[in-house]
Design brief:
mainly alpha; single chain; 4 helices
């Protein structure tokens, strides 16, 4: 009977220590999640700066996109779309130059490894 009581007390202490550890972990996780929520809320409270120029470009691009769904665009509409896209990129401070994609089909294995390492370094 004494063995059962001592075993019961020992098990109870072990369970309490396990519960304390789990409670501590959960409290840490809770505080981390609360910090994330606060940071996300602060990000949401800041208004997104959309300039009138950007808004105009997006609206005009949408209008041309709707027109293109029903019919082929005229040359003037294509030129206008090109200008709007370039202006939108300039407003958003993005490059207006298209990026060239290299063809790696006829490349030696050593060169492919070097290219892969370059890509890893860029990321």
């Amino acid at each position: 009977m004494d063995d059962i009581k001592s075993l019961s007390k020992k098990t109870k202490k072990e369970l309490e220590s396990i519960n304390d550890v789990e409670l501590f972990k959960l409290k840490q996780e809770n505080s981390l999640l609360r910090e994330k929520i606060l940071s996300l809320e602060s990000m949401l409270s800041k208004p997104l700066a959309v300039t009138p120029e950007e808004l105009i470009c997006v609206e005009q691009i949408d209008i041309i996109k709707q027109k293109s769904a029903g019919r082929e665009l005229s040359l003037d509409e294509i030129k206008r779309l090109d200008l709007l896209i370039k202006n939108l990129r300039l407003v958003k401070e993005q490059s207006t130059q298209t990026i060239e994609h290299k063809d790696y089909r006829n490349v030696k294995e050593v060169d492919l490894v070097a290219i892969a390492r370059e890509l890893e370094e860029d990321n």
